[in-house]
Write the structure tokens for this entry.
Amino acid sequence: LVDDGIMEGRNGDNFLATWNQHDYFYFIGVTPTPLTLDDLMDLDATNTQFKYWEKQVGIALNTKHPYVLREMSSVGPIGMPGVSDAFGASLWTLNFFLYAASIGISSVQMHMTDNSNASAWAPIPIYGRQNTFVRPQYYAHAAVAQIVGNGNGTTQIAALSTSNVGAAYDGRIRAYAAYANDKLQAVTMINAKQVNASSSDKGSFTFNLNLGSANANKEVYVSYLTAPGADSQTGVTWNGMSYDDTTGASSVAENTVTTTTADGNGR
């Protein structure tokens, strides 16, 4: 298209302002393999699927126009019960937003319909629920709004190396740094190893961070995106907040302020 002159326009009119694509991680009736929640939470699969797209984004950005995803979701066309409406999908969504930003995608819109199990919230009573309701995915949107919005338009996201995590966590660990005005603003750490609410042994993964000497001895605030388990559809919180199913209003579910202090080397 560029070679054929789409960038040139005609009679003073520009034909192109933004490169736009849409995709789904999985599409029922199109993707030939079955899907489980554990499959969705294998974050390496997202990188594999978007390997070519990373190249496409780079080509688009060379034209000086932004590249966006105007229709995206974990499962299309209307989600999958037990997968796209579970907390594991919220972790997938959080990772996807940050992954997309890290490769230069300017904007991602998650597909939403009133009958979708992949919508961030249900605007009508459906699927046995008597009222409208918020899904776990909504909390990932709130988390990204805080991470990106805090930079007042200057936020940049970079993926951090998370290699050698051990076989039990291969594909399940991600970390991203957020910079605002070219200064480190936040670090997001994701543990996407599936453990369901019924499990008595949730396990844990330890991240070792080096925030740099510029952040030596600084107090660091810790926010959690959490739920009873990967299969949970309720009980989700972000930064101690929960969102009302009917009004969408936030309220304090946990008022503990968690902080830690970096050492003299910023670790």
In short: DSSP finds five helices and 16 strands in the chain. The helical segments are 37-40, 43-49, 51-61, 87-102, 137-149.
